[in-house]
Design a protein that fits this description.
The chain has one domain. It contains one helix and no strands. The longest helix is centred in the middle third of the chain and has 9 residues. The radius of gyration is 11 Å and the shape is globular. The two termini are 21 Å apart.
Length: 54
């Protein structure tokens, strides 16, 4: 289980899958949201042009 690792940020992309990201968010996991610009199908995950700082 990822929650056991006490992650501060999770950066997901389209390969992770929308359903998986939705479940992570429902469980309160720290998923970095994207902008949904530049052709991304969802703003739930990072896409083209989005940035995350660790």
């Amino acid at each position: 289980r990822l929650q056991a690792f006490r992650l501060q940020r999770l950066a997901c992309n389209h390969c992770t899958g929308v359903l998986t990201v939705q479940k992570m968010l429902e469980r309160g996991m720290p998923v970095v949201r994207g902008s949904g610009r530049f052709g991304s199908r969802s703003d739930l995950y990072l896409g083209n042009g989005d940035k995350v700082v660790f």
